[in-house]
Amino acid sequence: MSNVTPLIEAPAETASSRRGFLLRTLRHRPAAVIGTVILVVVSLVAVLAPWIAPYGLHTQVGPVFGHPAWKHPLGLDDGGIDMVTLLMWGVRVSLVVGFAATFVSMAIGGAVGVIAGYFGGWVDTLLMRITDYFLVVPDVPLMIVVAAIWGPSLFHIIIVIGILLWTSTARVIRAQVKSVRERVYVKRARALGAGHTRIVLRHVLPQVAPLLIANTVLTVAVAIFDETALSFLGLGDPSTTSLGKVIENAFERAAISSGAWWAIVPPGALVALIILGCSLVGGSLEDALNPRLRVAHLSARTFRLRPLVGRGADAL
Amino acid sequence: MSAEPSVLEIEDLVVRYPIHRGIVGTVARRPRRQVHAVEGVSLSLEKGEMLALVGESGCGKTTTAQAVLRLVDPVAGAIRFDGRDLVPLGSRELRPLRRRIQVVYQDPYESLDPRFRVRAVVEEPLLIHGLGGSKSERAARVREALERVELSPPELYLDRYPHELSGGQRQRVAIAAALVLEPDVLVADEPVSMLDVSVRAGVLNVLDGLRRDGLAILMITHDLSTAARFAQRIAVMYLGRIVEEGPAASVVRNPQHPYTKALLSVVPRRDPRDRRRPQILQGETPDAVAIPAGCRFHPRCPIAEARCSAEDPALVRPSSSEAGHRAACLLLPTVGDS
Amino acid sequence: MSAPILQVEDLHVWFDLADGGELHAVQGVGLSLEPGERLGLVGESGCGKTTTALAIMGLLPPSASVAGRVLIDGEDILAGGEAAMRPHRWVDVAIVFQGAMNALNPVRTIGEQIVESLELHDRAKGSVARARTAELLEAVGIPAGRAARYPHELSGGMRQRAAIAMALSCNPRVLIADEPTTALDVMVQAQILELLDALCRDFGLALVLVTHDLPVVAQLCGHCAVMYAGEIVERGPLDLLYHSPGHPYSRMLFAASPDLAGLDEPVLSIPGAPPRLDRPLAGCPFRPRCDSAFAACVERPRLLPVADGHDAACHLNTAVPA
User: Fold this and answer.
1) How are beta strands A304-305 and C64-72 bridged, if at all?
2) Which of B6, B140, C158, C162 is most buried, judging by how many CB atoms fall within 10 Å of its CB?
């Protein structure tokens, strides 16, 4: 993948195994570390919500829009339910929707990208035309329409978001597959008589997998945002509590006119935080993977002079 | 020459690539143009023989090899392997035959999957063809293949990744991965040109040893001195045609075609006292899209005459050379004339 | 003997590695080049030949640190840093790289690039510069009309010629050619070598030909320095290097390239691989691959004269194996 720079013969990157790639990316990019910390904390909270949530999700623990207090740091919502509890459960639903929708879109986008890139020709043309078609459809209005027709349910939201988000993944993966397909070792496998399935599974997919992961992380952000938007517009599943739903509820119940900022700002900020985390991690991965984005750091600084120590025995 | 039939026989092979006209070109109905990569090449390869296909880039040598591997589709001609024409076969029928024609590519840094250990690289062909039986039998064959390319003891290499090996070692691994299927024909596409001089001979000697054991090798190269030293026969290609073909020693010591003569004259000699004025052809090989009429070499030929631009020479035996040596030049007296 | 134009003394280059280590790429190289002399700098990949060339030009990347002296007409240009280097680079010493495509700017015509190089060094301006550009292109065998072409419109050979024309723009006295023909076809390679030969003859250029290809050096150069593991193991007139090599590596390197004149001689490879340069070397670096190593080789040999103007770093020249 990385060609040795033609001008300098020796100090090419020491060939290190690709398996440590994710770890190395994280280590050298502070943004990736921050993003990972955000995502890990948020995910932990989501997973552990049933055990660590301080109150019940449906338990009224105080007055409507109760002010933040020591016992309720983020106050209470329109039903007198503790906001911290609500956020913990909301994150859970939002993440589930985000990951499930992403999974759907990755499956579609990955498959379309791999098939189009690997087979090329008319298959490629056809699939890419379809992709273009999906690409130009405005996401949110279509989601609104579909959600409105199918009716509000978590499953429908996941499917709707999933089938609208795969296009960019398909394009990126296709481009990468096209280049991998031209690698000599793929040609060699073909000359050996390997079937398409084998070549794709053994040689092509592992090569594009990191890119797929980077794309997944970025797509999760979009999916969570879309879910929040749909819920806010009242098209979410009424029986679940996602972050968008929390905001919508507060909004509906005139939280703003009551001055209850704590019912709207924290869930909004949390959505923003999750998206930020995804973008930082996904962006860093993509940056590290895409050779075209990896700009050589031109520097005015040149080499250093060094006095020759230990002259004599060592030097000739 | 032995009476044994050839393992591989290429007859009047023609390969052309269309050039995409683009939208503007299609709308403007520009004529469809083609790259005439290979235009009527005939070759034969025997068991235990190395045939070097020599020429500059764009002469069609690599395309010929790819056609033999059936990675490109010929427009016309036949590729007979063991008496059976490969050209009309579909991929399903080709599969069992692919095992018997293997390839080693030029770039050992690119031709091995970076995520595969040596063991997996060499074992993969067996898995693809469902050969080698049980796991331990496969392991034994992998070990044996590594030993045949002089990577011994194999234990030292089995668990390494390609990036942990030197260029010469990688190329040996690539050869082992081809050998493990026990092929009859090995296509070696510039097998040493990316390697350091000091290890080239090692890889070439491995190939030479395999040839002695009966393998038929089609070596693509631009290096006449390597071809002269290791091949039994040499075929020189220019613009999609073979211009001269014959026993290696005869082609090198008694070249007939002016192109072969020029190619030989520019090979640098390593003795500084043996300096000679090379006979350098001016200009560069023309585009394979617009092939010159008549003898395709005539625009660059130092001895071309008027008729060379009108008549297309056939590959025939010149009278001043030994049997099996043929050249395509109008100006050579041939055995038929007198 | 005339005074040397270019001298390199005890040159060392280290590269910082990503893991915090250091790679000692050039380990005390010494060279001297007289006006009009042609020197081949030969070795395997990773032996430090290109790094030496780049160090002479002051073109090493920030990850490099350098020690030693590079003298042009007796003046040390390395000690003064970029400021001391700049007036000499391209003016006294110019370089041609292996892939001409990398050395030429893809979005500017070759004519523009040569004009720019003339103007940058205050050699000529405007129409004078354009006339000089046409002259330079003709000198390297490119019809002046092609000055308006972009690099990608030219063939590999033509691009390499354009790169040579650019290197010649300030009338340098030394031309460093780093693998100038490696990516080219044999016939084009011969054309470029003939061009370099003619340029050296006509303009009195001194040439440093950096290559892995000994036969090319044998045909073009008078002297040769063979590098191995960052140091020069043998240097001297080519005739002596070929007919009475002072180092087994030179001998084995010649024997490793097949030759049309000796088709029946065996072609021998050198077993093993060069040592890693990111750790200190003990003893003779070639010892593990050498066919005549003996007890003395555990000590690192020094580059000592074996004949007039012929030096080699091998214990065989000073001691006899027991």
Assistant:
1) parallel
2) C162
Rounded to an integer, what distance in angstroms lies between the CA atom of residue C72 and that of residue C5? 5
The token duo for A116 is 């189009």
Distance CA C118, CA C116 (A): 5
**Residue pLDDT, tens place only, C162-181:** 999 988 988 899 999 998 88
Q: Does C286 score more than 50 pLDDT? A: yes
What Rg, from alpha-carbon coordinates, does chain C have? Answer: 20
Q: Which residues of chain B are within 8 Å of residue A183 when distances are taken between CB atoms?
A: 110
Cβ <8 Å between C260 and B200: no
CB atoms within 10 A of CB A254: 12
Tell me whether C219 touches chain B (CB under 8 Å). yes
Residues ≥6 apart with Cβ < 8 Å to C262: none
Interface of C with B in 104-123 (CB under 8 A): none
Average pLDDT over residues A178-192: 85
- Taking only the tens place, the pLDDT of each residue in C189-247 is 899 999 999 999 988 899 999 998 898 999 999 999 999 999 999 999 999 999 999 99
Is B163 near chain A, with CB under 8 Å? yes
Rounded to whole angstroms, the Cα distance separating C66 from A307 reads: 8
Of B229, B273, B284, the CB nearest to C157: B284
**Beta bridge partners of residue B44, listed in sequence order:** B9
Please, which residues have CB within 8 angstroms of residue C284's CB and are 6 or more apart in sequence?
A: C290, C293, C297, C298, C299, C300, C301, C313, C314, C315
Average pLDDT over all residues of chain C: 89
Could you report the per-residue pLDDT of A209-255, keeping only the tens digit for each?
888 888 888 888 888 888 888 888 888 787 888 888 888 888 888 77
Share of chain B above pLDDT 70, in %: 97
Q: For position B2, what pLDDT does the model report? A: 47
Does B159 lie at the interface with A, CB-CB under 8 angstroms? no
- The predicted pLDDT at position B259 comes to 94
Return the higher-pLDDT residue of C147 and B336.
C147
Q: What is chain B's mean pLDDT, rounded?
A: 88
Average pLDDT over residues A127-131: 91
Q: Provide the 10 A C-beta neighbour count for residue C53.
A: 23
Question: Does A17 touch chain B if contact means CB atoms closer than 8 Å?
Answer: yes
Residues of C in contact with A304 (CB under 8 A): 62, 64-66
Alpha helices, DSSP H only, in chain B? 22-27, 61-68, 91-98, 118-128, 135-148, 167-179, 197-212, 224-230, 248-253, 258-265
C304-307 sheet: strands from edge to edge: C93-96, C174-178, C206-211, C38-42, C223-228, C231-237, C310-312, C304-307
Note the pTM of the prediction, 2 decimals. 0.81
- The secondary element (H helix, E strand) that includes residue C188 is helix C186-203
* Two structure tokens written together for B109: 């840094």
Q: What is the pLDDT of residue C42?
A: 94
Q: Which amino acid is at B296?
A: R
C-beta atoms of C260 and B196 within 8 A: no
Touching subunits for chain B (3+ Cβ pairs under 8 A): A, C
Q: Please, which residues 210-269 of chain B have a Cβ atom closer than 8 Å to chain A?
A: none
Question: Most B CBs within 10 Å: which of C186, C242, C249, as the mutation test of the B interface?
Answer: C186
> What pLDDT does residue A22 have?
64
Q: A95: distance to nearest CA of chain C, Å? A: 37
Chain B contact for C269 (CB, 8 A cutoff): yes
For residue B266, which of B223, B327, B321, B328 has the smallest C-alpha distance?
Answer: B223
Beta strands, E only, chain C = 6-16, 22-33, 38-42, 64-72, 75-76, 93-96, 174-178, 206-211, 223-228, 231-237, 304-307, 310-312
ipTM above 0.90, yes or no: no
C63 reaches A (C-beta below 8 A): yes
pLDDT over 90 percentage in chain C: 47
Do A316 and C67 make contact, defined as CB atoms within 8 angstroms?
no
Query: Which of C10, C51, C277 is nearest residue A8 as measured by Cβ atoms?
Result: C51
